[in-house]
Amino acid sequence: MLQIGDEVVYFSAVFLLVVLGTRSATGASLLTAFLYVFMVMFRFPPVPGDQAGRVLRPRAPSGGVPVVAHRGGSHDAPENTLAAIREASRNGATGVELDLSFTADGVPVLMHDETVDRTTNGSGPVSKLQLVKLKRLDAAACHRLKDKFSGEKVPTLQEAVEECIRHQLTIFFNVKDQPDKAAAVLHEMYKKFPVLYNSSIVSSFEPKVIYKMRQTDPNVVTALIHRPWRLSRFGDGTSRSLSTSGQLWMGVLDVLLDWAHHHILWKLCGVSAIFMQKDFISLDYVQYWAERGVEVVGWTVNTAVEKHYYQNLLKIGYITDSLLEDCDPHY
Ligand SMILES: *[C@@H]1O[C@H](CO)[C@@H](O)[C@H](O)[C@H]1NC(C)=O
Ligand SMILES: *[C@@H]1O[C@H](CO)[C@@H](O)[C@H](O)[C@H]1NC(C)=O
């Protein structure tokens, strides 16, 4: 949806800033015109609204808002496993969020961290392990319910996709980096399982990942993940950097990044949704995006009180670690 109002404001602001900075009306006009042409030439139009709607507003069994199990539901089962996908389905999730990673031999698998240490009985980076070695690890080894889920393996991307399709779950692919590799692999997956165009979304904190995905396959539904102050602060609000100047600089970058997400990047990438950290979501915020044809999804919503708020007031989907009980937040 073209937001004429937005565009007039942004380009006027750019023009004014450049005029003030350079005292050259010609320079400012040229730069503004250049920016405008750049946006028009290089942005991807979003996928049609009805396609995005099938992904982002699937029929929830109880007529409720979409509920997506974070990493497959990391509180209820070992994260990013087939058992988690089955558990999420059994417990009434409409979808699962899954993390893409690559083994040393280039096989796409599900793993959130760079290393296997936190979730399995192995150690070292996933990217240094061959698939056969990775498959020998116990993916439930460190989970609170490890006895119930013992013997669970790290699944390949395709195994996970097939399991989700079997259970008619929406998939929220979370891609951290490696835009080229990820886009190629996901495109192949969409080709192999075309139902994914109607039942999955590719998301990332990195705009370049989403841009590459849309370049590779403009029919894929996409989302940007965002948390304000992500560069300077951890999710719980504590500072990342020890030096004051480093902290200040990251804070400035955070402000710019937040502005870019809300005014440029979403449009350039043509995303259908913004996955926003829950503490920054209000009714006004949801409305802001609704006016632009973009859905908001909150993460991670882990208490009954919050879920009630999403269900009854915000009326938007959310990502949660548990379908069953309250648990600690994840950032
Ligand atoms: C991890 O657990 C699996 C399953 O119990 C076992 O076969 C494997 O040898 C273990 N690997 C390591 C590195 O301990
Ligand atoms: C997606 O759903 C629409 C509406 O049901 C259908 O016409 C279309 O063929 C589906 N696309 C794929 C790739 O399954």
Descriptive notes:
The chain has 331 residues and is α/β, with parallel strands linked by helices. The protein has two domains: 1-42; 43-320, Phosphatidylinositol (PI) phosphodiesterase (TIM Barrel, Alpha-Beta Barrel), CATH 3.20.20. 42% of the residues lie in helices and 13% in strands. The protein contains eleven helices and nine strands. It has helices at residues 4-22, 25-42, 49-56, 82-90, 131-135, 157-166, 179-192, 207-216, 244-269, 283-290, 304-314; strands at 67-69, 95-102, 108-110, 170-175, 200-204, 221-226, 273-277, 295-299, 318-320. The protein has an eight-stranded parallel β-barrel, surrounded by six helices. Strand 2 (95-102) and strand 3 (108-110) form a beta hairpin. Helix 8 runs parallel beside helix 9. The chain is globular. The mean pLDDT is 93. Residues 121-122, 136-138 line the site of one 2-acetamido-2-deoxy-beta-D-glucopyranose (NAG).
Structural key phrases:
331 residues; 8-stranded parallel beta barrel; binds 2-acetamido-2-deoxy-beta-D-glucopyranose; transmembrane helix; GP_PDE_dom; membrane; PLC-like_Pdiesterase_TIM-brl
Taking pLDDT < 50 over at least 5 consecutive residues as the criterion, the unreliable ranges are none
Query: Helix share of residues?
Result: 40-55%
- Ligand list: 2-acetamido-2-deoxy-beta-D-glucopyranose
Mean pLDDT: 93
- Give the H and E element order: HHHEHEEHHEHEHEHEHEHE
Q: What percentage of the residues does DSSP assign to strands (E)?
A: 5-15%
General form: globular
